[in-house]
Amino acid sequence: MSDLKVLIVCLGNICRSPMGEAVLRDVANKRGISDITVDSCGTAGYHVGELPDDRTVSTCRKHQIPIEHSARQIQTSDFTEFTHILAADESNLRNLERIRPKNATAELCLWGSFLDHKPIADPYYGGMNGFEQVYQQCVALSNAFLDKIGR
Ligand SMILES: *[C@@H]1O[C@H](CO)[C@@H](O)[C@H](O)[C@H]1NC(C)=O
User: Where does the record place the Phosphotyrosine protein phosphatase I domain (predicted)?
Assistant: First the structure.
């Protein structure tokens, strides 16, 4: 099977998508999948260069998931560099569809389409509980994604 290169995308790349990146990498490792690269980015550039939100970091620590990321914005080359681009919500998906180049090779879809078609809600303006929910959703979505593609 060919290498998997998965890009998780949300709006600012500090809350949901770095969590998704860390969780998918961890779930894949635990399944013994070694030929996978996971990265994340935002559709917007507000937080470029920033570390993940403290609440994303503490939620990952609590579950012993290593997390290390510096925020970046989506770029055209991502559409040919990655095999799968997974959007956190419908708004992110629409923005990605709008900038997708003609030569895109990555499969682009809502991450939730592998499970229940639900978006990952932005936890930024809520409390810690929202981050825990995002974590649980990322675990379920990581397993659903890997199941669906037969890994
Ligand atoms: C795809 O198209 C973009 C322009 O839309 C171009 O910059 C890029 O080099 C192309 N990539 C490949 C792999 O052909």
Answer: 4-148
